[in-house]
Write a structure and sequence with these properties.
Layout lengths: L1 E4 L2 E4 L5 H7 L2 E5 L3 H13 L3 E5 L2 H10 L4 E5 L7 H8 L9 E6 L4 H6 L4 E4 L2 E7 L4 H69 L1
Parallel strand pairs: 1-4, 3-4, 3-5, 5-6, 6-8
Antiparallel strand pairs: 1-2, 7-8
Helix pairs in contact: 3-4
Length: about 210
């Protein structure tokens, strides 16, 4: 588990954030209440995720921009800014646009959450799933599981597209070399023909 202290992230085990991201899906928990943040982090770690904890929106943005996670669990009411503002700002960063975001909020009643399990917040024209506090563990883990799966599928698709583009470039390189070689050969032929013409001219005039 890691916890943001100021703008710094403390990672246990001496591992870099990028190394951790490759091992297991990484999640940022943005929750201002320390006890709730700790509880969420322990629950997610037991479910097989690596977790970074943040207590303020600005710190969460800083770390997400540097090391984009697969999913962010965002509390709506924060001491320095709202969770909606956090998500809106992150969406403006190119490397953060694929992060899945899930809102947790006390603005929804438990009754509302039970009636409409697909409640969402709209940010910049995009709807993000939300759960009311207190929430069921199974409900949150279910949403995170779906979000991680969606994120990984999209990352796989991007990797495949990049690999195909790289293969295309590599395939074009040999053709370009052949064309350049043919041009050089053609140039040599032209020079040879010119030499022959010169020799014929010199013989005729001697």
């Amino acid at each position: 588990m890691s916890e943001v202290t100021g703008v710094f992230v403390r990672l246990t085990g001496g591992e870099s954030p990028m190394t951790i991201l490759k091992k297991r899906p990484r999640i940022i928990v943005l929750e201002d209440d320390r006890a709730s943040r700790k509880l969420l982090s322990v629950m997610l770690e037991k479910a097989g995720y690596d977790v970074d904890q943040c207590g303020e929106g600005r710190y969460a943005i800083d770390i997400a921009v540097k090391y984009p996670p697969a999913v962010m669990v965002v509390d709506v009411m924060l001491p320095d800014m709202t969770g909606i503002e956090v998500v809106d700002e992150l969406n403006g960063h190119r490397n953060c646009r694929f992060i899945r975001k899930i809102f947790l909020t006390g603005l929804l009643s438990k009754k509302t959450n039970e009636i409409d399990s697909k409640f969402s917040f709209e940010v910049g024209g995009t709807h993000y799933r939300a759960l009311a506090k207190p929430f069921k563990k199974s409900a949150l883990l279910g949403l995170i599981g779906e979000a991680v799966e969606s994120y990984e599928l999209e990352q796989d698709k991007i990797a495949e597209e990049e690999a195909a583009e790289e293969a295309k470039k590599q395939g074009e390189l040999p053709r370009a070399k052949v064309e350049r070689t043919e041009e050089r050969v053609s140039s040599k032929d032209d020079v040879s023909e010119l030499d022959e013409d010169v020799e014929e001219f010199e013989s005729a005039t001697s």
